[in-house]
Amino acid sequence: MTAITLVEGVTQALAHELRRDPRVVVFGQDVGANGGVFRATEGLQKTFGEERVRDTPLAETMIAGIAVGMAVQGLRPVAEFQFMGFIYPGLDHILSHATRLRNRTRGRLSCPVVYRAPYGGGIHAPEHHSESTEAIFTHVPGLRVVVPSSPARAYGLLLASIRDPDPVLFLEPKRIYRAARQEVPDSGEPLPLDRAFVLREGSDITLIAWGAALRETLEVAEELAGEGVEAEVIDPATLKPLDIHTIIDSLEKTGRCVVVHEAARFGGLGAEIAAQIGEYAFDLLKAPVQRVTGYDTVMPYYQLENQYLPDQSRILRGVRAALEYPR
Fold this sequence. Notes:
Number of domains: 2
CATH architecture of the largest domain: 3-Layer(aba) Sandwich
Number of strands: 14
Oligomer: single chain
Structural class: alpha/beta
Mean pLDDT: 96
Number of helices: 12
Distance between the termini: 52 Å
């Protein structure tokens, strides 16, 4: 078995579903002949043909809308936006139609569409190429938001997303597209949606992160272990609906929590997680929930991205604040 990267896990899942289910159609800008801007669809058009893997014009509104039409007519469309920062022209179709069809038709229609987009910073790209605005979409009823953080989770969660009867936004952290390799059998076995993954068990503090931010978070957990502090690390994976139960189970052991995300701080998903912890597990807390996040600015250009993205030192400061409370 060959070890694959996260982006190759995406490719493997798409190929598996194209073979398994004739209703699956992949389309978007440059996904066919070019294989996608990050090569996530490389070779798929050659294997499955232009009817199943189709290039589109540079028209995100059209991509989002056609996906809705395909889904309600019995297909399983997987629509790619080249970057998350380009998704906004398609919001009307996603928010006003894809997410509302089940309710609007009282269950007579559903909308099994997957919208894929590379997201997040770390590749030193210009404006609109480094967005991390997942909180906008987690606010929308009827839309699942899924973020893989490893090759195996990219494969298993994408399979589950394509098979889901309702719309899914599948955000792929491009900073770690090729950061690590993992053996992932092409078994066709999906991973569960709406379920958080405990990546490291611990008893002293709970660290919650998703996507590319997990890389630094796990490194911090290893550093803490050298100091005798055992951190439990949780990857929510499905950001909406959130598996708060796994988080509460962890807090029953640790009583302290740090949430890490690269999105801007104000109104970010970390605030929602902290609010739910406050509502359902306040009596378990030994310290206020700490957030380590991006700043409330537009992602800066190029090398300044490194100052924007949470790094190990900033995560450690958040951990120290939680562990040392009250001073």
